[in-house]
């Protein structure tokens, strides 16, 4: 039967139920007493007890005057037995109008069948919602990733792993909040619409406010507003929220993503290292029950302390070249090209180093490692190293071949910050749309005095990828951005 005919067939069943005086979409709530897994976990103490369960029908098996159903709720599946002599002939006849995907409420007794399966034997049942669309045939019709992302609601129904990923994501977010609040950090909210895009180097999305008749930017990072709060005396703060970057889509990038930023007044990069190590170790042991995770076939230990190398050290180790001695940008470009890294569009030597790090080195950094000492031209918000002002107090944390975190000893000198912004503006005026803009209000805040501080940013989506062994960022975002279906 074609898809449209299947829908019509289900609609006919719905109309027949209505003709018999039954509303296929329940008018009142259904007060459940147990979830499926609760019944299984508490058997045999629940054996013989009456309970109310509700969920979606995933399978129907009829044997004469008995029908078995697989009913799924948020906790899992449980078998339902409906016998004609138990529910009555008239009620039992209504099962003719039942389809896979329908949502039922069951009132019944907890038993164990002859085959040893824990089951709810129904005394009665209630239609709570009629599914008019047929589900993927034999539950194998929703394996194509693009379809799974587009029809996430079906993906959650038919693929247990998908549901597990997003429950785990929720636990990770809650675990981060618990970890930080227990250490005295306060969660705050900062604007998602900003007059000046700042806090990172990225191409922003632009929107327009009609009442004020002004263009605004969806935030690329909350950093500059969080630092204003440091100026205001909020000394231990964090924000978990959405950010938006108008960039390409890949297995590691989605234009809308979740970012954690943490700031510690009177701290520095070393404090942030310890905080990062402790938080990831805590999450792994609390959520996964182990300090070790598996990602893309590799066993990874999150037990502190993590390795730490300078950018020059890790580049030399992985490429065999001492990049510290290469001072000319053209020479750096040529060497990068010899490694298969195109650098024709980059403007500075530091950007060449970042490209080599990303394309050549990063995929090889499997065990946790802090890579620190980044050039100043690619770190406009980080403090310079006292002994080498060309380098900054910054690290990036790599795990499983992915960048997971970025952190600074935060720049709080308003004169130095202004000069960094001027350089960024020069690049922006030359056509670099990802360069940061001059933010006079932020500079004014710095002039009132910002305490020395350590700051941390963690991409939550990549962290969830790591903790769930997911190969693509789209696997861990409930509704990743997709082109509308009619345009494909």
Q: Brief description of this entry?
A:
The chain contains 15 helices and 19 strands.
Structural class: alpha+beta
Largest sheet: 9 strands, mixed
Total helical segments: 15
Average pLDDT taken over every residue: 94
Report the radius of gyration as a whole number of Å.
Answer: 28 Å
CATH homologous superfamily grouping of the largest domain: Bira Bifunctional Protein, Domain 2
User: What's the number of structural domains?
Assistant: 2
Shape: elongated
Structure summary, number of beta strands: 19
Q: What is the terminal separation in angstroms?
A: 26 Å
Key attributes of the depicted protein:
single chain, 488 residues, alpha+beta, OB fold (Dihydrolipoamide Acetyltransferase, E2P), BirA Bifunctional Protein, domain 2, 19 strands, 33% helix, 27% strand
Account of the 3D structure:
- The protein has 488 residues and is an alpha+beta fold.
- The chain has 2 domains: 3-135, OB fold (Dihydrolipoamide Acetyltransferase, E2P); 157-306 and 367-482, 2-Layer Sandwich (BirA Bifunctional Protein, domain 2).
- It is built from 15 helices and 19 strands.
- Strands 6, 10, 11, 14, 15, 16, 17, 18 and 19 form a 9-stranded mixed β-sheet that branches. Strands 1-2-3-5-4 form a 5-stranded mixed barrel. A 3-stranded antiparallel β-sheet has the order 7-9-8, with no helix packed on it.
- The chain is elongated.
